Amino acid sequence: HGDNQKCQEINQFRINSAQEFQAIQEGTLEFQETKQSFYLRFFYQFHPASSSKQQKNAQARLVVMCALGILFEYYLYRIYMLLSLAELVGAYFMMKYVPRKYVGWAITIFSISLLIFLHLERMINDYGGWHLGIATCFMEQCIHLGGIAWDYTDGGEDKSTLTPEKARNAIDVMPSFLEFFGAALCPTQAFCGPTCNFVDFRDYVYSKGIFASIPNTFFPALKKFLSGSLLVGIYVTLLHFFPDKLLKNQAFVDKNVFEKMFLLMVIAGYTKAKYYVGWTMAEAATTASGQTYNGEDPKAKVPLFDKFFALDILGVECSVFSSAVTESWNHNAHMWLKRYIYFRLNRVINRDAALYLTYIISAFWHGFYPYYFVTFILFAIFTENHKDIFRLCVKYSILRTFPFQFIIYFFSYIGIGYLGMIFNILLHRHMKFFFKGLPWIGLVHIALFILFKFTSISKETKESIEKAKELQKKEGYSYTIRIYELLQ
After folding, report:
1. Are the C-beta atoms of residues 267 and 247 closer than 8 Å to each other?
2. Stated pTM of the model
3. Helix ranges, 290-350 (H)
């Protein structure tokens, strides 16, 4: 009874237990909120979106999109949805009154600044937590508004000076208020995408071009919905047997390297599946609405629904080079960063500076946790390393044989999983065990980066570029090659 130290230990144990119990309760509530939001989102997206394409009046269709989008945002964010509407109003009037050649930068900076403020607010009030806050909505709106603004800026340029892609997406005429809000609030795109460019959206609304006659979308949408349902089962099952806390303690550090690699691959695998679920269900909604219709396959004579997409699972799981994974993972955000951030920055600063600044902007877009910046800077290093490795494969034919390609693929897969877990673990008290258990993955890539940068063993030359083009034409070998394609 007189042992004060023992009493203090018991009291600390009670405090820790209470905190853990509270965290479990909060986590359960957040899960329930997420689940309810998902069900409502699917109801709004799948059914009304599908029926909306039957409406003949384009203005009525836009009104329906706006109404459903506002109702959906109100359900998720309650009164905070007024912040979202205020951003849309502000962006619209900026498009109308800011000189056209500055609209792209103005609205991009405006939307990112608002998003940064909301990320900081969430960190202050809920550090380390996660819920469907208004910042989630602003992330998607940042992509919407930035894309529309830059395409409108391009519409004021001389078409002969634009690339074919820019010329195709350029917006010649200022969108009407209803068109602008319809595109931003469209319930099949407003939450986590995928989003189409405004030109395609307007053609869809007014039933122009290939959207004049959209085939039945039921079975293509059902296929994506069932795929998402299967992924839910995979995620829940693996989460039960291999919770991510196995990477966050001293026991992980004490395991041998093979056990650590196994846990990393399994836990990173089902963590990716969690994101696959949301994006696959979102694709089911856009497919059901007909917005992804892309004409008919000339060989198979079946309709294609791949005009835009959120995710390419095979690209993420099977790409030999990690530089190709970025194009398959969250394709929506990737294309925004590539078209409207990287290419625009590359016109005013050098390539390397534009690349790393784009990754830093991507980190800002996700949030302000320090390990987000660690993740994206390492991702930039990984991407550059794999471009150098690809050039070595082009140069030396032995490296293009299956055994060497499989080794590259394996370590690429491990590296992507490693970065994914840094992104998800977030908190330093957990991260220190993860880094201590697997310190060599990041260090090896940093060492390779220094080697490639300060030597000429993988330097890009005119000859290497021509040989890469020749290999792609004759053998189909490129930096987007997938491991199963090497067996064909």
Report:
1. yes
2. 0.84
3. 313-318, 322-328, 331-336, 343-345
Can you tell me the distance from the alpha carbon of 107 to that of 149, in angstroms, rounded to the nearest whole number? 7
State which amino acid sits at residue 477: Y
> Do the Cβ atoms of 84 and 73 come closer than 8 Å?
yes
Contact 77/84 with Cβ under 8 angstroms? yes
Give Cα separations from 266 to 35, 243, 262, 433 (angstroms): 24, 10, 6, 18
- Looking from the CA of 401 toward its CB, the CA atoms found within 13 Å total 6
Nearest alpha carbon to residue 315 among 193, 477, 485, 195? 485
User: CA triplet 450, 354, 143: central angle to 5 degrees?
Assistant: 125
- Contact (Cβ atoms closer than 8 angstroms) between residue 299 and residue 323: no
DSSP alpha helices (H): ranges in 126-217? Answer: 134-155, 164-169, 177-185, 198-205
Task: Please answer whether residues 137 and 70 qualify as being in contact, where contact means their C-beta atoms are separated by less than 8 angstroms.
Answer: no
Q: How far is CA 22 from the centre of its chain?
A: 31
Q: Please provide the distance, in angstroms rounded to a whole number, between the alpha carbons at the two ends of the chain.
A: 75
Per-residue pLDDT reduced to its tens digit, 342-365: 999 988 888 888 988 999 999 989
| Per-residue pLDDT reduced to its tens digit, 382-433 | 989 999 999 999 999 999 999 999 999 999 999 999 999 999 998 899 999 9
Amino acid at 422: I
pLDDT at 208 over 70: yes
Cα distance between residue 473 and residue 483, in whole Å: 18
| Helices and strands, number each (H, E), in the chain | 21, 0
User: If residue 429 lies in a helix (H) or strand (E), which one and from where to where?
Assistant: helix 428-437
Identify the three-state secondary structure at position 482.
strand
Structure tokens at 261: 């690699």
